[in-house]
Design goal:
This protein is of the alpha+beta class. The protein has one domain. It is built from four helices and seven strands, in the order βαββββααβαβ. The strands form two sheets. It has a five-stranded mixed sheet. The longest helix has 12 residues. It is flat and about 50 Å long.
């Protein structure tokens, strides 16, 4: 279904001048299920997984992973500074898996969401979503959170 976009204030803009960095990530915490279970059920390869109990090096030593996790990220895959392009990429991957994704959501202990990162280039402006992205997220029963950073002007320059 196509929608009349003539009333929109913010057309797609891949240079999105107020954005320094953006990406989106599907976050699936499969409870007691191994992250490979998500890969098998969805038929999608993750960008990253974490397995509960595994030991991971950190700058301050070693850390034990507390939860099973499965992530699919647009970082490094989409060069646009327009968050909608990143969401479109992710939703294009997920739409064909809608029934399987919802089946995973119904499993006890499973939690999932879409996380969006958006860094301001100048301490103003912000990301825009269109009804198309919001509708697709709703159809997939996915909440959407934002990690937004406004660094502003560097006074040392």
């Amino acid at each position: 279904m196509t929608h009349d976009q003539s009333s929109r204030r913010t057309p797609y803009n891949d240079s999105y001048p107020t954005c320094e960095r953006t990406c989106v990530k599907l976050l699936i915490y499969p409870g007691d299920h191994d992250p490979r279970w998500v890969t098998e059920r969805l038929g999608l390869d993750p960008s990253k997984t974490r397995t509960k109990g595994e030991r991971r090096p950190t700058p301050r030593g070693e850390r034990v992973v507390p939860l099973n996790a499965w992530f699919l990220s647009s970082e490094g895959k989409i060069s646009s500074m327009d968050l909608r392009r990143h969401l479109d990429w992710l939703l294009d991957k997920l739409d064909p898996t809608a029934d399987r994704l919802k089946d995973i959501q119904r499993q006890p202990g499973v939690q999932m969401a879409v996380g969006c990162v958006w860094w301001s280039a100048r301490g103003q402006g912000g990301p825009t979503l269109w009804p198309e992205q919001m509708g697709r997220l709703a159809n997939l029963n996915l909440e959407c959170g934002f990690d937004i950073a406004f660094f502003g002007e560097d006074d040392d320059e």
